[in-house]
């Protein structure tokens, strides 16, 4: 039976991890499938957004661009995994923290936008007036990219205490963003339920908000929460973290990056399979 990972001695670190064939296959399949499925979806989403006469949804466009870069990094990681295996762990760390922070942050800000629209509609014009959506979009990039770079160079650049803090910070930001999403979802659901007692149908705008919140809830509970739980098993060791926990978390985060734009297109009625289904019923 082949070992799933090997240990090798490094002068700067006591133990470094070299992933075995099983991990390489998992990582390669995750990266390639994510790119092949996600890239066409993102291209379609952006095309529909910019060719529509409606004002583009800034936060969803930002999310699409963010995920597009994630797909490109994934393909870059496949190349590095086989061409430069000695540095693939660094790119994997970058990809992990990038997706770990940016994915939940995008969902949280989208959820908060719906929260203001449904729970505090009189305040909704302020989002345009004070460019709050643009600020949220910039915040996603300022959180994810610098911290992703810091996670790669932390061990060689910063003292051990600072390194531990930098490694823990993305996890707590992720938990905070998930908490914001869950709290906003609960408030929105309650408000929508109160505004439509009995069997009264929801207003189309509120129905779209309900679908969006339902989608963000499913993505959060099925992908981001499990990734958060898995990450807490880092104490099992550097090799277990690098060759088992991180690939599994990458799988969950990559799946979330594909499912989110698919859900968005479905709420807009832009998925051909759904249109065919409606015509045949």
Automatic annotation (TrEMBL):
<keyword id="KW-0807">Transducer</keyword>
<dbReference type="InterPro" id="IPR000276">
    <property type="entry name" value="GPCR_Rhodpsn"/>
</dbReference>
<keyword id="KW-0812">Transmembrane</keyword>
<keyword id="KW-0325">Glycoprotein</keyword>
<feature type="transmembrane region" description="Helical">
    <location>
        <begin position="32"/>
        <end position="50"/>
    </location>
</feature>
<keyword id="KW-0297">G-protein coupled receptor</keyword>
<dbReference type="GO" id="GO:0005886">
    <property type="term" value="C:plasma membrane"/>
</dbReference>
<keyword id="KW-1133">Transmembrane helix</keyword>
<keyword id="KW-0675">Receptor</keyword>
<dbReference type="GO" id="GO:0035025">
    <property type="term" value="P:positive regulation of Rho protein signal transduction"/>
</dbReference>
<feature type="transmembrane region" description="Helical">
    <location>
        <begin position="169"/>
        <end position="188"/>
    </location>
</feature>
<feature type="transmembrane region" description="Helical">
    <location>
        <begin position="135"/>
        <end position="154"/>
    </location>
</feature>
<dbReference type="GO" id="GO:0004930">
    <property type="term" value="F:G protein-coupled receptor activity"/>
</dbReference>
<keyword id="KW-0472">Membrane</keyword>
<feature type="transmembrane region" description="Helical">
    <location>
        <begin position="209"/>
        <end position="229"/>
    </location>
</feature>
<feature type="transmembrane region" description="Helical">
    <location>
        <begin position="71"/>
        <end position="88"/>
    </location>
</feature>
<feature type="transmembrane region" description="Helical">
    <location>
        <begin position="244"/>
        <end position="265"/>
    </location>
</feature>
<dbReference type="GO" id="GO:0007200">
    <property type="term" value="P:phospholipase C-activating G protein-coupled receptor signaling pathway"/>
</dbReference>
<feature type="domain" description="G-protein coupled receptors family 1 profile">
    <location>
        <begin position="107"/>
        <end position="264"/>
    </location>
</feature>
<dbReference type="InterPro" id="IPR017452">
    <property type="entry name" value="GPCR_Rhodpsn_7TM"/>
</dbReference>
<feature type="transmembrane region" description="Helical">
    <location>
        <begin position="94"/>
        <end position="115"/>
    </location>
</feature>
<dbReference type="Pfam" id="PF00001">
    <property type="entry name" value="7tm_1"/>
</dbReference>
<protein>
    <submittedName>
        <fullName>Somatostatin receptor type 3-like protein</fullName>
    </submittedName>
</protein>
